[in-house]
Amino acid sequence: MTAAAAGPKYLSVREHLRRRVAAMPEGALLPPEPSLCAEYGVSRITLRRAVDGLVADGHLVREQGRGTYVTRPAIRHEYRESFVHRIAGWSSLMAEQGAQVGTTVLQQRVVPAPRTVATELALDVAADVVELERLRSVDGAPNHVAHSFLPADRYPKVAVEDFTEGSLYEFLRREYGADLAHARIVVDVGTAAPDEADLLQIAAGSPLLVVRTTVRDSSGHPLVHSFSRLRPDVSQVEFEVSVTGR
Question: Which overall architecture, per CATH, does domain 79-236 show?
Answer without folding.
Answer: 3-Layer(aba) Sandwich (3.40)
